[in-house]
Write a structure and sequence with these properties.
This protein is of the alpha+beta class and about 90 residues long. The protein has one domain (about 1-80): Alpha-Beta Plaits, CATH 3.30.70.20. It is built from two helices and five strands. The longest helix is centred in the N-terminal third of the chain and has 5 residues, at about 15-20. The relative contact order is 0.28.
Length: about 90
Amino acid sequence: MYNVRINLEYCKGCGLCVGVCAKHGLYISDKLSPLGIRPAAVRPEVQCTQCRNCCTICPDAAIEIVVKPQVHGETSLAMLSEREKP
């Protein structure tokens, strides 16, 4: 299972990620971030396919996809070796 994390300190609410999500799992929030902007947010009911389009297009590197193993907690895909990537 993959989860998308959006760093609210980096996200400026440009919406580029919303337009490229293949599953329409991202949207621009109605709530303001601590920086006073409407950031991107994740629709929890949508399963991420790990296409990484959102990570690639984000100009501020505000998006991270994490793998959620059942036993060991969360592991960032960036931390996995090529052999361990799904």
